[in-house]
Each structure stands twice: as C-alpha cells, then as structure tokens.
Amino acid sequence: MKSLVVIFFSSWFAASTLFAQSESTETIVYYENFDSLSSGWVGENLGSPTSPSIWRITDSISFSQPNSFVSNDGLTNQYPEGIFDALISTPILLPAETELLKVEFRFIADLAFNGLVDSSDYWYLEISDDDGQTWDLVTNERQVRSGSAWWKYPDYFSSTQDGYITEYAGSTVKFRFVLNDMPDGLIGQGLFIDDFTVISFTCNADPFEPNDTPETAFTVSYGDTIAAEICPLNDYDYFSFTAQAGDFVRVYERDFLTPRAQIYILDSNLDPITNNFYQTDLRFFAPSDGIYFIWILQGINQTFSANYHIGIDTLSPNPDILSVQDVPDDQGLQVRVVWKASYYDPPTGNSYTDFYALWRQVEDTTEMPVLNLNELTNEQLNDQKLLQTYLFEFDNMFWDFVDQIPAVPNRPFMDYSYVAPTLYDNQPTTFIVCAVPKQGYQLPALWGNPGTGISIDNMIPEFLSFGIERLNNMVELTWNVNLIVHHDLMGYRIYRHTNTGFVPDESNQLVILPAETTEYLDESINNGIDYFYKIEAVDDAGNSAWSEELSSSVTSLGSQGSLPDKFALLQNYPNPFNPSTKIKYQLPSGSNVSLKVYDILGKEVAVLVNEFNPAGFYEVTFDAANITSGIYFYKIEAGEFNQINKMILLR
C-alpha cells in the first residue's frame, strides 16, 4: 500500500531517552512574624507632629497569630493627622551565592483615601545597605489604601511589582516601612505588617548546559523526551535536531506545568516556525533538510524558574488506522475501526478535510466492474454512487467502499472511529482510510496505513421463557426467544431422556427445528413413563443456550417445572407480524388479568384476556386480519402489575 500513500515515511525511530529533571532551590534567608517582643524592629519619627513613633506590636489583628506591627494609636486605633513615621528592621545579612533574592510580607493598608492617589495617605518600603544613611525604594513610591483585609506582597501588585532585591546580594541591609498622612482631615486605622520574609533562590545543575545559544545547543533525536527548567529568569535552553524535508515533526508538552515555559521551533536560519502560545502540541512539516532548533525561555508569569517536560517525534500526516477491534456483546459481523486524523484536519481551528472514506478488503467474487483505486480523483472520491457501483483494485487486492465519515472541526476528541461491517466472523478483515480534502483546495487525498481485525459473535442466545405440558398421549414444549435481538439464531435442538439429570448428546437428540419455531409436540411417548427434556438454542456462530430440564410429570397448564418468580409481559413473536402474532405473559400468583390492544391514538382495538388466571405461564394469539397496518400497543394489568409493549403490523 505504500505507493498509495501520497505522503509517506517510516514511523520507526530510536528508543526514547528520558533525561533527569532538575529543580530550583528556595531558601528562607530571614523570617519575622513579630510573635516575640524582642524582634529588633523599631519605630522612628520622620517628622510627625507627635513624638515618638507610634509604631507598635499589637495582638488585636495579625495574619499569623498572635502579633503584628501596626502604625496607630493604641487608644483610638487610628493614626494621627499629619503622621510621617517609619518602622525599621534589624540588620539582615543577605547571601552572596544566589540567583535571585525576593522580599515578601503580609499587609493591611487601612488608609484614608480621598479619591486622588497623589493627595491621599500612602505608604512604601525602602532598603538600605549603608546602615540607614541612604534608602532605595523596594515598592513603588505611593502605595495607597488596600482595604481592611490581609494581602500578600508582591502578589497584590503582581502586574507592576516583583519584590526583587538581588542587587543587594552579599550585603547587610535594613528595611524601612514608611507611612505618610496627607493633611486633609481624613485618617484610617493604619498600616499593619506581618510575616516579613526574605527568600533566596538558587538553580540546581542543568545536565544540558551549556546550551544557552544555538551554537551550544544540546542535540536530541526523534523519540527523545527532555525534562529540565528555565532558571534563572534570563536563562535560555537550546536543543537541536536533524530533520529531512517532508518530515512531519511533533514537539509536545508531556506535562502541563505552571508557570509554563515559552517554546519556539526555529529553522536553521533561526526564524520561528511555530510556538506554544496557544497550543501544547506543536506540529509542522520540515520544509527542507537541515538542523532545526527548540528554543525554550522564560515563561509567562514566571517568578524565578519554570519546569518543562517535552518530547519530540515524527508523525505520519496520513489517516493511519490505529486499531480494528471487535465490538463487544454483539452478534458479530462488525468491528470498530479507529484512525488518527490527517494533517489537514487539526483538532482545533480550520479543517481542510471534507470527509474520510473507509474501505474494506474483499475477494473478487462478484460481477461488479473494477476501477483502479490508485487512480481515483478527488471528484470521484466525492461520488458515492460511483463508489458503491464498483470494486476497486490495487496491487492485486480488491476493496469495496464502506462509508463516508465527515470531518469534525473543533472536535472534543482526537481520533476518529466507525463501526464497520465484516463479511465473516473469526476471520481477519482489513480496512484502509482516505482523507478527502474540501473542494476548492489544491490538496492531495491522503491514504493511511491499513489495519486488520477480527469480528466475533459473542452474544449467547437467551430464552425469554420455556414450558412443558403433558396431554393425554403427547407432550407439548413451548419457548420464546427474541429474534429481533438474536437475529442470527439458526434454530433449536430438542433432547429427551427417561432419566433426570441426563447429558444431552446425539444419542438422545429428538429433533432439530428452525429459528421461527416456538413449540414442539412430542407424540412418540408411552403412558406411565416420565420424560425429561432440554431445549438448545443455537446461533450461526455456534453459541448456544439451554433451557432448564423440563419434566413431563408436571401436569399444570403452562408450567415450567416451577412457577415464575415475577410478573412479566414478553415481546410478541413474530414482530413485525401479518396477520397474527403470539403474546406471552407470566404470573407468580393468581390475579385478575386484563390484556388489551390499543392503536397509536390510544383507542382500544381488542380485548385478549379479561378473567382470573392462576399462577403460571400463558400465551394468547392476537389476530389482526381486520385492522390496518401500523404501530399498536398491548397492555397487561394483573393486580398492581401493569406493562405496555409495542408491536408492528406490517402487511
């Protein structure tokens, strides 16, 4: 079939290699939650009308119990008009060996706000590496009211501030929170600070370094997977691979990690081919032979490091069949064919595939005319009448057309599937799929690799009922099997013996009956002898089901060896019918029984039973010779039990 495939290449690649993943290390350099009164943090009046500083430890409000620092008066729980006050930390030694330093803390800024940022009360955080001689801003200069809830810095300002202080690595620093009131007659509860933390981030060894440039790119191959991280923020990772023109390359994220690194595919000129902005599975045709690059860099919303886990493969762009599996719990002669979408039918976005044509390999045992499968045009592939009129030959093999399956754009599934008919059970059947492009596009039809599977009839026949009645000089056996469900039923075998518990075999086989039979009258009996019977139902796959052993010594009308254990109204047989059909029902206890027939408008058509029936199995005949074709319903009422079934009169 390879010459049928418009775009074809081998799907073999070397065994995949999984590289070890490294992760960055986060270390807390300093942490203060002010639970100890000797934290070393002190207040300083920078020009307030009141003296000294009003910064104090409070246990009334805190993020981590029991204490926090607050800038307000302990009696009024508000800061005074015109306050200009600072809270200064103890000296903190920052590590020299670090990739990144960051400050975090919890805060409540319950400040007065007059609607104008430039004239409202505000706060800010500063840092000094010369023991307070000079101060540099950590936060923005004016941080105004945030409300009465606890917030985390810098998350509250994540779009504008990051809390980084890496430039002070190796220094001994102090931090200073400053609160400044603008004299406008408005005041608030002040600035609350808790859980002040300085964090150091370091990157672990990267097994692929140095690979920060295209010249130092780490070489990978189809089938490889890569697990590493972008660390620190300015880190670049380059990986190179060799592709041939026409290779359908797939670079995909094996795990969806947050924050998510950015991934670009570059050609040999370092021009971008695609990226992972809006997808996790990057696919493209290599335009030429040569070296291609995977460029991985800082992720969106990445604060320090971003892990990634990617794989690289080649794919077939064709609708290759992935599996041909038997459909379980059916009567056979059908399989489920699963194939992957073609390149021109992505799971999201525009699909240039109109439909998939499914074909089945057959023997040339018909008198149908034959066309060459390899010479079909796109126009002919759209002509269902033509496809259903001919057999198609390729490489001395014959194929018949099964069906057209429409392509589904923006579908919620990746692979397509279709339940297709087979000609025989327990024998291999081969299928092939062709992706046909939409009309108006100058695209080829893509033929996938074929697939083979076997259908199995794995549904055993099932008796709805069976019974026995001994008459004067004969025994009547009755049974019922739903032939609509078990349409492949071949017939029945009746076995008889004079000993109970007998094993049915050819020596005691009494008769073979066709599938439409529902009763048998055994007239070859002798009075005074008890007979035992078994009924076997057999389908065309050799599956069989057995009745219970039935004894002729049971003489109650319609008995089954034992009384039924539940009420039931069985499906009529035959159905559809013309002009008569049989309806069976069973009663576990004696009841007043009403069995009536109604038309589709609910009008009563016939009364079949309207009397008391003892417990047992019953059968009545409905003769519809005088009514028109159509759908009818029959309803039984027996005590509290009622049921309605549908039947079809078809002339």
Commentary on this structure:
The structure is a single chain. By secondary structure, the protein is mainly beta. It has five domains: 10-22 and 208-315, Jelly Rolls, CATH 2.60.120.380; 25-202, Jelly Rolls, CATH 2.60.120.200; 321-454, Sandwich (Immunoglobulin-like), CATH 2.60.40.10; 463-551, Sandwich (Immunoglobulin-like); 568-649, Immunoglobulin-like (Sandwich), CATH 2.60.40.1930. It is built from two helices and 46 strands. Strands 24, 25, 26, 27, 29, 30 and 31 form a seven-stranded mixed β-sheet that branches. A hairpin with a 4-residue loop joins strand 37 and strand 38. The two termini are 50 Å apart.
Features:
651 residues; mainly beta; Jelly Rolls; 7-stranded mixed beta sheet; 6-stranded antiparallel beta sheet; elongated; disordered N terminus
CATH architecture name of the largest domain: Sandwich
Shape: elongated
Query: How would a textbook summarize the main sheet?
Result: 7 strands, mixed
Number of helices: 2
CATH class of the largest domain: Mainly Beta
Provide the CATH topology of the largest domain. Answer: Jelly Rolls
Count the strands? 46
Poorly predicted ranges (pLDDT <50, ≥5 residues)?
A: 1-22, 554-561
Radius of gyration, Cα only, in angstroms?
42 Å
Average pLDDT score: 87
